[in-house]
């Protein structure tokens, strides 16, 4: 009986006469499963072709605007990788790498079964792994899919090798292999290694160079030319011996190659200048680009780099470790110099950090943009008098915000020009209060400050003093707009090809950009804070602004002539505080050196004057048309709409907001026909503090005549004359009650009313704890 008949008899015996209905469904499901598994396995079955593993990374060579080389980057991700064609690799290296790694490369089919058998036999005899059997194709498979050295992964490596061999010829496999070879550290491929270690292209490698490079891949971290030269030379001898054994060279050639004196370049020799710039630009280049001409000027770049190093060296005792600088051509927006740190290759000093792109608090460097915007929208006028006086702002959920300058002094009434040029904080915050944080933030976004992404409430009034974070790049680009009278252009790093425009909008046409430049170039306007002949004062027309962030963590100086904008930063990448280094002592000397160098052969033209504005003499104290009793007359640019206020005949009188400032002055302001009490103010309430043994109030004048003054005090105990030790102030022992203080001098007089209460008197509208005379 046949097998088929036997199966049929068995079926009959078990009563299965025909297939049940579920059997057909099961066969369909099994078929679908097999088909799905086959489809999923297809990627692991198909041959791998050269285009499937083609490398997109290319070595990129950079030059400056005049064709001078800046350096070659062998990758965009800072792994030194380069792709080179087979016909651009020296024959010596191809022979050396084959002799060292796979002498039967052109005889086997991706997996050398002869070598596998030998390796297994040696392992059995020695009871340990004596030699490997990896071919070049298997090594390439491991580079493409790195995996642990386990048996399953080894089998996967073999299978991938067969797929590579099935889809590529031997030259294609060798080409992919030599461009992926690990050559020590973050260097990959023969071209990258040749350029990094010897400064040569792979096509110019001689036998000595080639045998050294072919020795490295066996243990790339161990045979590093920078750290283990002696061991590398021993491995070179092995490579040369293999080349002799395989008939590539003679013993005499091997000896000469071994004895040849080879100079290995330092790690930074592949980059001549501007490493921060090159890596930054490389990350923005499209694929396939191999040569790039930039807008940099190499001699200028090297000069700026040297100045950055020297300035940091001069400030090291003040805990300064880093600096950055940017130079821009105002006419074209081209970047001429870009220095991100004193030394890119100083890893221990965080040298790879890029100070041009890093986000830091700009301090007062944003003030010019606020003042221009305020003038543009009419929030202030050029001849307006601003109050630099003690000021307090209530912040929800926080303490009072009380802006002060680094001098911790207040100047009282100041002109807009003086407030900006001397970088006064209180007037600036008052201007921002009038403009509005949200509106000013919108203007900064127009100027291209893309990293100010928080809400207006987050920045608050401190935005004008640098509470946000910006980059030196953004600052420089915005100052170029001031230099160009509000014409905002994108910066360019390759000739004729500006970088893609940011989200910045165009700016409204305004004469006030030139006025801001005029104010920033006025050495006399900034003399109160910086002196007339400071490091900010150059022998030619230049506008400049400094900035210092809180606790001396960052210092900035950004300024321009008609031709160039220079932006500098000095600080610490770690955020550590410097030791009393401000913008004028930190970043300004660097700015000064660069500016003088840029103009050492040609003095720049004068800065543009404001169109549609006319200079008028104003009284420096009142901001109005000068009168006979004006102590100082200066010139200021005014628009026609300002002339009505300018011609106002009424005198200037300090408002109540100046009283606290006036009370701080050691002597009252003298005037021939005025008399004013500075403290207390009208309707003040005072709490009688029982903890003070002799609680007193200091009565003080803000404005007083030169003639003798009488002091009178009326209250519950009647009216009495007081006799001060000084003509302008006295201390009065506090008593509970309502009081009227009056001062007289001839026909002049002034009076205020105030109250002294005990704590149980009820709610107080305005209260002070008055310090005793001893506390004063």
Automatic annotation (TrEMBL):
Organism: Laspinema olomoucense D3b
Origin: domain of life: Bacteria
The name this protein goes by in its record: Penicillin-binding protein 1C
Reactions catalysed: Preferential cleavage: (Ac)2-L-Lys-D-Ala-|-D-Ala. Also transpeptidation of peptidyl-alanyl moieties that are N-acyl substituents of D-alanine; [GlcNAc-(1->4)-Mur2Ac(oyl-L-Ala-gamma-D-Glu-L-Lys-D-Ala-D-Ala)](n)-di-trans,octa-cis-undecaprenyl diphosphate + beta-D-GlcNAc-(1->4)-Mur2Ac(oyl-L-Ala-gamma-D-Glu-L-Lys-D-Ala-D-Ala)-di-trans,octa-cis-undecaprenyl diphosphate = [GlcNAc-(1->4)-Mur2Ac(oyl-L-Ala-gamma-D-Glu-L-Lys-D-Ala-D-Ala)](n+1)-di-trans,octa-cis-undecaprenyl diphosphate + di-trans,octa-cis-undecaprenyl diphosphate + H(+)
Keywords of this entry: Carboxypeptidase, Glycosyltransferase, Hydrolase, Multifunctional enzyme, Protease, Transferase
SUPFAM superfamilies given in the database record: beta-lactamase/transpeptidase-like, Lysozyme-like
Any Pfam family hit: Transgly
InterPro entries, A to Z: Beta-lactam/transpept-like, Glyco_trans_51, Glycosyltr_51/Transpeptidase, Lysozyme-like_dom_sf, PBP_1c, PBP_transglycosylase, PCN-bd_Tpept, PLipase_D/transphosphatidylase
Residue span(s) of domain PLD phosphodiesterase: 317-348
Gene name of this polypeptide: pbpC
PANTHER family: BINDING PROTEIN TRANSPEPTIDASE, PUTATIVE-RELATED, PENICILLIN-BINDING PROTEIN 1C
NCBIfam families noted in UniProt: PBP_1c
